[in-house]
């Protein structure tokens, strides 16, 4: 079973950041970190596109994680922020720059006694909105239909289309 | 706009001049992408390599503040290459000879040091624009309007459309997109010093007669001369010409240039009333604050920049003491001696707009119901509305001919010098809206982007000052000095700094020059001189920034808190008190 992930078409992206806002709102719940899991990046004269996790089948981030804060869950790489120790191995391992570690102050309580605030680390990465009824919030919010969810079936179709094109003009491979 | 926004997709060429749709109107940006997909040519002229420049056929990196020199050369190039539609000029325009007399002094070779544009590129762009089939559209935004020669540039843009006959046919002409939501609607309804609703001039006696009759007042009660413009309010107070100011939903101490000076000037008011939904820096200075309703709490009609009326309904009822703008205005008017009463917005729309503005008569609430719309001119009930203006080359002048006007180029008011070597230009970004009173009070959006904001700086300018991306920096001008963060941006030109005017701490308008043009009195927000400096102690700077932000929030919170204290003193029960005294319908069991 191949993984499914969100992919962006930079030709259609207008750089409006609506995907980031939608992602943040999805994570704006108690116990989560309100941050966008994808980042719209504009570089030089060529590119503007959101960078988002590919949910790699042989995910280097999950392989590098010593505490299974990142782990395989069926066709995606899942996140359990409570297990993150902030070692940043995943950040080093991810070739796309789609994983981040952030620190947040949290104040623990022992009954009525407020303990000293401590810095806690959290891994920030796309969870593909598996717990969301209508699928990824970013895709729904995209104003220019530049984002879509792709699966193995899509790739099979793309490859078939490329095969057909190649046969039509065989000089391209000769 | 002479065309509709959807029609932009079907033009053969879109010429974006001083307009960045991707940050100011992402929905229009999507249309530009679709136009490109359908085969349209895209020309972008902007000092920054804006998002649309990525998909442009020609990107023209003109220098800041060189608009009129650029447009004159563009017109020169059209004439020089024999691309003028002589028949259209002869039959539908006046003033061509005088127009040529001005632009013939602006050969692209002569202006290239002013505009930074290679003459060959100028010629290629002029040819692409003039020859595009079936039509071309010039789109402009604040990059034209907020310059010292704003009206001059608009005259030239319109003339360029006329001499090439890229106006007066479907999906063609001029597309000045608006700077804010419903600016078009405010202008339509006569929220201008020179017009009654529907662009009917206050200086025209027949028009005054008509409105006096409709409003049931003696005609001499209606002013026969053009009033003041809001951008002049500071000077008018200072000169003793304005004593009271009712400010509806604006935050001029954030959005007007040289804000610190404006604050000092407004202190001279005898009475300062603000209608708003949040405690803003401007509200904090007011004598009286009238709580208004937010976008989700009221209904009405917006006009899009392409003259399309759209009805919008309320999502939730108003809370607490908040009232709709039209209710507040009616009450103010009644207490000032002119009894004003309406039952609902439909009554206002029918009586004040449709009945008094012939061009909008067909735009009924029924037509706009649901997701319906109506595009003016729409003079009759069965009229379909008008996406395109000036069809067949019939213009709205008395002789139905377009007047061609050109102007000589004038440099911006405050040029960079040794002490302030950089150009400061105020722009927009996607994360927040306008003065940020709405989006800055939305937690999710401030999680995405928050104080002190960013100043975009070219890599070479940053390097020369030892500035790295995300460093906190000082930006200063002759007006003031503010702290902000550096965004080292390889998409902008050297020698210029770009900031948005939305940040309360990194407040661009404490730096901007207050200079308005003589015709429209629009501030020159796109150009003044500044300097940038790295802050050596970054730790201190981070703390300083937070302290300033906290202090401002606390000051505004305290001001807002007074509403509860005051109502206690007056013995007026607050919402909470009312809940407390409401008898519990359930019998107590304890």
Features:
A: 174 residues, alpha+beta, two-stranded antiparallel sheet, 5 helices, B: 590 residues, Rossmann fold, Barwin-like endoglucanases, six-stranded mixed β-barrel, disordered C terminus
Q: In summary, what is this structure?
A:
Helix content of chain A is 24%, strand content 25%. Chain A is α+β, with helices and mostly antiparallel strands.
Outline the fold blueprint.
The complex is a heterodimer of chains A (174) and B (590).
Chain A: E1 5-8, H1 18-26, E2 39-43, E3 47-51, H2 60-64, E4 70-73, E5 76-79, H3 89-93, E6 100-106, E7 109-110, E8 113-114, E9 118-124, H4 137-141, E10 147-150, H5 152-168
Antiparallel strand pairs in A: 1-10, 2-3, 4-5, 6-9, 7-8
Chain B: E1 13-17, H1 21-24, H2 26-37, E2 41-45, E3 58-60, H3 67-80, H4 86-92, E4 93-94, H5 96-103, H6 108-115, H7 119-131, E5 136-140, H8 142-145, H9 150-163, E6 173-176, H10 183-188, E7 195-196, E8 200-201, H11 205-215, H12 233-238, E9 244-248, H13 252-255, H14 259-266, E10 271-276, E11 288-291, E12 300-303, E13 308-312, H15 325-335, H16 345-354, E14 373-375, E15 402-403, E16 422-427, H17 443-448, E17 454-457, H18 459-464, E18 472-476, E19 481-488, E20 496-500, E21 528-534, H19 538-569, H20 575-581
Helix pairs in contact in B: 3-6, 3-7, 3-9
